Amino acid sequence: MPDRKRLCFRSDYFGDRAAWLAFAGLLEDIFGIDVTVLDRLGGPDPTSVPFAWFDGAGRCIANITAFSLPLVVDGTFVRAAGLQSGAVRPEHRGRGLYRDVMEAALRHCDAEGFEAVALLTDTPDLYRRYGFRALAQHRFTGSAPAGGRAGPLRRLDIGSEADMTLLGRLLDGRRPVSDRFAPLRQKEMFLFNAALTPDIRLDLMEEANAVIAWQIGEDGGFELLDIVGAHIPRLADILASLRIAPPRVTVRFAPDHLGWAGTAVPDADDMVLMLRAAESLLPKQPFALPPTAGF
Ligand SMILES: CC(C)(COP(=O)(O)OP(=O)(O)OC[C@H]1O[C@@H](n2cnc3c(N)ncnc32)[C@H](O)[C@@H]1OP(=O)(O)O)[C@@H](O)C(=O)NCCC(=O)NCCS
After folding, report:
1. What number is the average pLDDT over the span 129-152?
2. What percent of the chain has a predicted confidence (pLDDT) above 90?
3. N or C: at which end does the chain have fewer Cβ atoms within 10 angstroms?
4. Residues 239, 212: contact at Cβ < 8 Å?
5. Residues 149 and 72 in one domain
6. Domain containing 277 — which CATH number?
7. What is the pLDDT of residue 40?
8. Does some domain include residue 2?
9. Is residue 58 in contact with ligand 1, taking CB distance under 6 Å?
10. Which domain, by its residues, includes 170?
């Protein structure tokens, strides 16, 4: 094993404020992402277990974080974990530090009995050696359904504490947005992604008590990102309630609960979803992880 003498290996350290800020510094330097935004959204996912190397000055120099990511896949509950925030500072690369933290994280996932481990990456080759397989994701496009019933609607404000509390409650009790493939919860990542997506609109359908996360797509059409509620409204009712009649609709998850079937188009995104799981647990039909659940 290469020399690790001046380094300190730590896991499960998010409760240590200085270490959390050192971790935030690593992600800011490598990805330009400020995870301290989570501090005002209730903190990171409480199931997070980070694995990291720190240097003598307390800088976090290598990290990967495992977290619980319960999924529904083809109608079946899958006890899955996710891996996120994988990075090594440039001056420490090529010494096997990433391998150390990855192996520790995977040992943890296996010991905890997770049936599947998921990650998103733009370098899938890095993960094949650990048993991860790339899964194709799709978008679902088509013309807008007509004849929906319009109900009352209210736009939520990400800056409003009351609105975010309401959204948090709905995230806690949500129905998975698709039975083909969807996270069961993912509250913290939803709030974080929403806070970092300037064009996202969060509209509460007050009768259905469901939040519609959407944006105007690159083609100028309606792009449905996610739906948060105990009940998933039909796409026709969503559009009627939003009082829009877009030329095209794109749905960023399998639309099996929407009363509408688009055409599945392979996603050209650079980020590849990978899963380390038995063949029998892989989704059989086109699907996508909603962007609001991206990690
Ligand atoms: C990717 C990254 C974490 C690798 O860190 P590292 O410290 O150089 O990794 P290690 O030294 O532990 O290398 C582990 C193995 O991965 C291989 N590897 C490293 N980068 C790779 C890449 N981009 N593609 C494929 N394999 C890669 C190494 O060759 C090594 O293989 P070996 O075990 O057969 O020798 C680091 O380059 C980084 O932080 N990059 C920017 C952020 C990033 O891309 N994070 C991962 C995105 S999900």
Report:
1. 97
2. 93
3. N
4. no
5. no
6. 3.40.630.30
7. 85
8. no
9. no
10. 139-266
| 3 assigned to some structural domain | no
Mean pLDDT of the chain, nearest integer = 96
CA 83 to centroid of ligand 1, rounded, Å = 15
For residue 103, the one-letter residue type is E
CA of 220 to the centre of ligand 1 (A): 38
Q: How many domains does the chain have?
A: 2
Interatomic CA distance for residues 158 and 40, integer angstroms: 11
* Res 42: pLDDT: 85
What are the structure tokens assigned to 102, written together?
């990855």
pLDDT tens sequence across 211-226: 999 999 988 899 999 9
* Test site for ligand 1: of 91, 98, 99, most ligand atoms within 8 A of the Cβ: 98
Question: In terms of domains, do 260 and 276 share one?
Answer: no
- For 90-110, the pLDDT digits (tens) are 999 999 999 999 999 999 999
What's the pLDDT at 2?
Answer: 56
Side chain identity, residue 179: D
| Among candidate residues 70, 69, 75, the one with its CA nearest the CA of residue 256 | 75
d(CA 251, CA 138): 9
Residue nearest to atom 35 of ligand 1 (CA): 96
Q: Domain with 157 in it: what CATH number?
A: 3.40.630
For residue 231, what pLDDT is reported? 96
